[in-house]
Amino acid sequence: MAQLELRAVMQSTQPVTPVSARWPTRALRAVCALCSLLLALAAMPAAAQLTIEITGSGEKRLPIAIVPLAGEGVLPASISSVVRDDLERSGLFRGVETPTMRPHPTEASNVDYAEWRARLADALVLGSVAARPDGKFEVRFRLFDVVKQAAIGGVAYTLTREQVRATAHRIADYVYEKLTGEKGVFSTKIAYVVKRGTVYELQIADADGANGFFVLRSNEPILSPVWAPDGSQLAYVSFEQKKPIVYVHSLRDGRRRVAANFKGSNSAPAWSPDGNTLAVSLSREGGSQLFLVNPDGSNVRRLTRSSAIDTEPRFSADGQFLYFTSDRGGSPQIYRMPIAGGAAQRVTFEGSYNVSPRISPDGKQLAFIHRNDGRFQAALLDLATRQMQILTDSARDESPSFAPNGRMILLATVIGGRGVLSAVSADGRVKQRLSVAAGDVREPAWGPFIQ
Amino acid sequence: MRALWIAILCALLASCAGTSEQSPAGVEDRKPGAEARGAEGGGPGSVDLTGKRGASVLTDPASPLSKRSIFYDFDKYDVKPEYRPLVEAHATYLRENPGTKMLIQGNTDERGSREYNIALGQRRSDGVKRMLLLLGAREDQVESVSLGEEKPRAQGSSEDAWTQNRRSDILYQGEY
Question: A312: buried, middle or exposed (CB in 10 Å: 19+, 13-18, 0-12)?
Fold first, then answer.
């Protein structure tokens, strides 16, 4: 009964549950800090390839055996390896070594549960790959609960050679959802900016860092990319005209539109949950103030009227409020105000520098950057209990970004003088580092679920 | 002269509470790259500084107009007294050359949020612009923008680099 066993473990260790009622939390963190695991992803020829290193991971991980799919050698990448890497990267699973078996089992085989139990696997994935006459492939798999001795379910896919990794991510999402009850994010994309020498690239990659490609290449800085809720567009700030201007870039055809190019600086775009509105910070009327604007640049309306800095807006999950950074109280802190207008309420109180608010997908938590004794660290505030937790031990964290299931937070940090991306689980237990050879990586933004 | 500065300071203090800059209606340029290439063509109201006359007075090291940078203390955005003659010289030039346009770029050191630093740099360039307007420059001659921490003059994470990067730069049309 793998599913229930995983949940039982989660429930037994939850003195504080910042995210979900069935997740392990602080009780495990001290132990987890000792765990360390290197995970090198398959080397790809592209220079854009991100390498992911897990630097801390959960103490109690569900053991799962992912047997190489029968016949997967005909594919350009090993589906079982990609699935295993995905699941291990989540920090919730541990891949069990699988022996060479004759005959090689498939999803249709009779499972010898006793043998898998003896190998200490709680869950098992078996499958097969078949080449079709039309040049495509058919991949089938089935997920088994070893403890309960029952099949949980399975799927068959038809795919081209180019869709092998994408298919593997979908299988990992299926397994993750069946065993944890939550949607997986392995099929999602991430956007980030790479600086190499004097060249800036806005890139998009799979959530595991593979298949990176550039969306915009420029000799001037690019910052603050944000995904439209449907994943079809990115809004960002580009300096290509020697000042910050907000653009909206279609990922379907590469068409770019100016969303805000007024006198002064135009920056900090944020999408409304319905994708119909951008919040931006503009200096066109003096100072840096919040405005709403349609993504095509029309219908500009001013939202804040302060003599302070108001910037870094983010919509609440229900779209009714804006969280933003302001120094109206004398130091930069995070505030919240209704979209319809009205008074702003201060949200952060601890410390003299709290910036870059990001609301969790369920609207219950706020990730932000907190200055702590001269160090800039990602922190998480439970909006109901007001409890704040510092998530990292680094010194220069920036730009936190929630995974669409709220489970991980991607952020930029600096290690050894070089910008790298790091990901931390929302309970601080699992940490990963993503780096690009010979480049500074910054400004990450985790994309939405793919429909 | 002293009386003039007192008047300016008073006006600056008064203007800090509210903002009164005029805003252009609508979105300006919708063609990416058009403005950057504008220096090649030129149009009504543009000034070519690559010729002999304009270039010398703005770039001659002996001219006060060749001084283009204003530096700030940590977390500060007020123009220190030592830079007032510099700002005054540029205000005089703008007053005497009404067709001339200027861009002021505010910069910050690398610490903290990139977007918040855009706002801090804007506060610095806005401060220089306000002073220029009080000294007689026209609103449509001066644009203040921010580059935040994105275009550091000095690389590295030392106090010395940070000092050089907390800065407003003055550029004339044709130089940006």
Answer: buried
